[in-house]
Amino acid sequence: MKRPSIPAPPHAGGCLCGAVRYRLDARPLAVNACHCHDCKKLSGATNLLMILAMRDAFRHQGAVERYRKRADSGREVDIVRCATCGVRMWHEPLTGAHFVFIAAGTLDDSSWAVPTSHIWVEKASPGVGFEGDAVKVVGQPGDRQLLIDAFDRLYPSQP
Ligand SMILES: [Zn+2]
Ligand SMILES: [Zn+2]
To answer: Domains of the chain (ranges plus CATH)?
Structure first.
């Protein structure tokens, strides 16, 4: 598989109804697919593809609602949705306040968002395919740096 290159920022996106728009003015840090039970429930899909990015480069406008979820690991995360149409757009992890996890499908252009890592692979639904060059993690990595390193290896930073 040939990976599409990562386009230059900004990366814009929003919800289904258009009431909320967001913009990331930085290069993504990782493109991670999570196959855990919670992500299946929350997305309504077999897995959730998230863009890991620096929160200080992320802005949004429009009314949102937050739902605080506590994972089995004890980690808490605020799940941010459009107050009107309910589309989940991003997560704000309380244990990593400088990060934001953007749901890749809410980007206006998600064509470049190919996973560089997969987590909770032992819970993946049958029929889910894995890229040969992506990192596969059983359970959740103890350190998010592992996901960032996986991205950097596949997409070396341009000067
Ligand atoms: Zn909306
Ligand atoms: Zn998950």
So the answer is: 27-154 (3.90.1590.10)
